[in-house]
Write a structure and sequence with these properties.
Blueprint (H helix, E strand, L loop, with lengths): L1 E2 H7 L5 H9 L3 E3 L2 E2 L6 E2 L6 E3 L2 E3 L6 E6 L3 E2 L8 E2 L14 E2 L8 E7 L2 H8 L7 E8 L4 H9 L13 E6 L3 E8 L6 H8 L3 E10 L2 E2 L9 E3 L2 H8 L3
Bound molecules: uracil (URA).
Length: 238
Amino acid sequence: MMRLDKLLCEMNLGTRSQVKEQIKKGRVTVNGNTAQRPEQKTDPENDRICVDGKPISYIQYVYYMLHKPAGCVSATEDGRHATVLDYIKDEPRRQELFPVGRLDLDTEGLLLMTNDGELAHRLLSPAHHVPKTYYAKVKGQVTGQDVEEFSKGLDIGEKKLTKPAELTILQSGEISEILVIITEGRFHQIKRMFACVGKEVIYLKRIRMGSLQLDENLAPGEYRPLTEEEVLELQKAK
Ligand code: URA
């Protein structure tokens, strides 16, 4: 059960004081009866709520794509640094959101923010092998030998080798540019995989997670809601 004014707020029908005003003016009905009090408890799943006669359907889950900038942590609270939640401003449901997985402080790119714990769990669970694609700049020449090593899995100092990773060289030189696809999310995984072949990652950006691709129109620090299609595609991840 949820307060009526909270529910209307969460459905983006206005600020708390605006929706309270709508209720006072008798514009809101619950199961056909004019609502009297903003604090009235309602059942978001089953009550039929209308504003000015128009039915409001309750949306339980929200999904945002954030282009995480460098310099913020993938957490909802932190004593020292800005968090990814600081970038999701003015959303009535921002307090419910959490990031799906972590990117390092200095890593940029695609971060899904949601309140859907089940989907998050599925996308992160090692059993589901959801592929994540990163673009990186690496100090030194990345070689065919590195591609081979990545494809076999690397010993990054844990009990098990990493799963095979698909490394594609975009440009090899003093500073190389690469794409790499991994299906796990171990701590500092890409940086440690390159360290393993004697190279240093100097820039890292996630550009894809499963079916979800970073929107090129989002500058670092910007976000947008996922489209319905993007949500449906993500939910198909087995
Ligand atoms: N691998 C890393 O090393 N860092 C990240 O942020 C993500 C993957």
